[in-house]
Amino acid sequence: MPEDDELLVRVRACGVCRTDLHVIEGDLPVHRPGVTPGHEVVGVVEGFGAAVRDFTVGERVGVAWLRRTDGDCVYCRRRSENLCPASLYTGWDADGGYAEYTTVPAAFAHRLPGELDDIALAPMLCAGIIGYRALRRALLPPGGRLGLYGFGGSAHLCAQVAIAEGATVHVMTRGAAARRLALELGAASARGAYDVPPEPLDSAILFAPVGDLVPVALRALDRGGVLAIAGIHLSDTPPLHYESDLFYEKELRSVTANTREDAREFLALAARHGVHATTHAYPLSQAGQALTDLKAGRFDGAAVLVNDLS
Ligand SMILES: [Zn+2]
Ligand SMILES: [Zn+2]
């Protein structure tokens, strides 16, 4: 049941994110034993706690990764709520959307643009928002050259925003299907994961959770370039060589979750630029298969679970 300030949401669709795999496989510490994963939920408000004012039953809402913050610490007060030490996460600290029903604090529920259907919207709620924050963290100059390492759910949405804003996008990824999708979406080139892009990069984003790619991406940067690491988990990086990997003021930055402001900005941009997710629907009862296929890289774009139980 929802708490006083929470909504009860009937799940219609829930995206499958790599973080769900990290939670299940123990790459991330256990926050709640046996937690139900899922933090890309599109659903309908079924009810709410006594303190909720501004939602109505039947309204469509999105439930994302960032679930709660204290609103009050030094990070929250400087608009970096993604760094709040007291933050809680959907599908990690509280049961998420791989279920018929879930709950969300009303202040952290997202209103969704009307023109997109449930399945198309689901991957936007983590993959899309995180890709957007990573793009902003990568400080791509106007009309700049952007390299994307890995091309799954998050990268393929990020690429569409970058291209719509005038960037030249080069994709380095292992899967042939993902490389094809990249070119279809307007990438200027698509090569293997460890290949050198056809021109030096102003900015790069590492989406693959592979630390070995950090020096590869740093060496692909032009002078003054920025590499942002988008994932919540990364395998260990090999030693970096100062001269080839970091000198000439190259920058290495991480990306930690997102703020609600990132979500609002991204959802508005996605609607304006017609950003669309390439999706593969699975019935909710086949969540395990969707995760297995994600791990094996068996689909391009993003998997979405559709509630076939209620
Ligand atoms: Zn805080
Ligand atoms: Zn996620």
UniProtKB/TrEMBL annotation:
Cofactor(s) demanded: Zn(2+)
CC per GO annotation: cytoplasm
Transmembrane stretches, start-end: none
Signal peptide positions on this chain: none
Record PROSITE patterns: ADH_ZINC
Name of the top EC class for this enzyme: oxidoreductase
GO molecular function per UniProt: alcohol dehydrogenase (NAD+) activity; zinc ion binding
E.C. no: 1.1.1.1
Gene3D superfamilies, alphabetized: Medium-chain alcohol dehydrogenases, catalytic domain, NAD(P)-binding Rossmann-like Domain
PANTHER family for this protein: ALCOHOL DEHYDROGENASE 1-RELATED, VACUOLAR PROTEIN SORTING-ASSOCIATED PROTEIN 11
Family note: Belongs to the zinc-containing alcohol dehydrogenase family.
Name listed for the protein in its UniProt record: Probable alcohol dehydrogenase AdhA
Organism this protein belongs to: Streptomyces roseochromogenus subsp. oscitans DS 12.976
